[in-house]
Amino acid sequence: MADKPYVIDEMISAKAIAARIEALCREIVSEFSDTEKLVVVGLLRGSFVFIADLVRELDLPIEVDFLEASSYGNSTESSREVRILKDLRNAIEGRDVLVVEDIVDTGYTLSHVTNLLRSRKPARLKTIALLDKPSRREVEFRADWIGFEIPDAFVVGYGIDYAQRNRNLPFIGKVRFTEPAS
Ligand code: IMP
């Protein structure tokens, strides 16, 4: 699958992403204006570009931590079974937490991760995802903030990969498989 030829069509420009992040950060700052120190948790690896841009727009005292959950491997289909590959470094009991995800697709990853983190009794637990594909949902999950709702397409760029490639594109692009030339 991963070596089938494909092209990438731009779907969301770098400029549009930056503008959306600015607007989202105004809402997040107002939600957490009373926080002592917000723990911003990035879900590896897809959120690493998003979290980097997000935290630089957040005028709040923050701490950054990372958690890695299993994802698609080298395919374009969810495994539906979520495993924690790397846990948080620090305890979150009594803390304000913002979980940062690249995409909500079937919903399995964020619902599993938020259930796990909620069991650790944070004071507040909120979620933000850059992209949401609501038509693909298999378990109920709604992030508190969404950058963009997109249709059922496989996307790459801005930290998001296809078989570990294309994370370094500055925009979000749609993968379009092409037939090999005969
Ligand atoms: P969910 O558990 O199905 O909601 O999937 C969430 C994870 O699947 C995301 O964090 C991504 O790693 C991956 N994913 C979902 N859709 C895409 C896509 O279009 N491109 C690349 N990865 C995706």
Could you describe the 3D structure shown?
Helix 2 links the parallel strand 2 and strand 3. The chain has three helices and nine strands. The protein starts with 5 loop residues before the first strand and ends in a 5-residue tail after the last strand. The protein has 182 residues and is of the alpha/beta class. 29% of the residues are buried. It has a single domain (14-152), classed as Rossmann fold. The strands form two sheets. It has a six-stranded mixed beta sheet, sandwiched between helices. It has a three-stranded antiparallel beta sheet with strand order 1-9-8. It is globular and about 55 Å long. It has helices at residues 14-31, 48-57, 108-118; strands at 6-12, 38-44, 62-69, 84-86, 96-104, 124-132, 145-149, 155-156, 172-177. It binds inosinic acid. Inosinic acid binds at residues 46, 71-72, 78, 101-109, 154-155, 160. Inosinic acid is lined by residues 46, 71-72, 78, 101-109, 154-155, 160.
Task: Outline the secondary-structure elements.
Layout (H helix, E strand, L loop, with lengths): L5 E7 L1 H18 L6 E7 L3 H10 L4 E8 L14 E3 L9 E9 L3 H11 L5 E9 L12 E5 L5 E2 L15 E6 L5
This protein binds inosinic acid.
The site of inosinic acid has 16 residues, from strand 5 and helix 3.
The helix fraction, in percent, is 10-25%
- CATH level 1 name: Alpha Beta
Topology as a string of helices (H) and strands (E): EHEHEEEHEEEE
Q: Would you report the number of β strands?
A: 9
Broad shape: globular
| Spatial arrangement of strands, main beta sheet | 4-3-2-5-6-7
Strand portion: 25-35%
Biggest sheet layout: 6 strands, mixed
Distance between the first and last residues' Cα: 19 Å
User: What is the overall number of helices?
Assistant: 3
Which cofactor or ligand species appear? inosinic acid
Structural class: alpha/beta
Specify the CATH architecture.
3-Layer(aba) Sandwich
Please give the domain count: 1
Indicate the radius of gyration in whole angstroms: 16 Å
Write down the overall mean pLDDT: 94
Q: What is the CATH topology assignment?
A: Rossmann fold
Low-confidence stretches: none
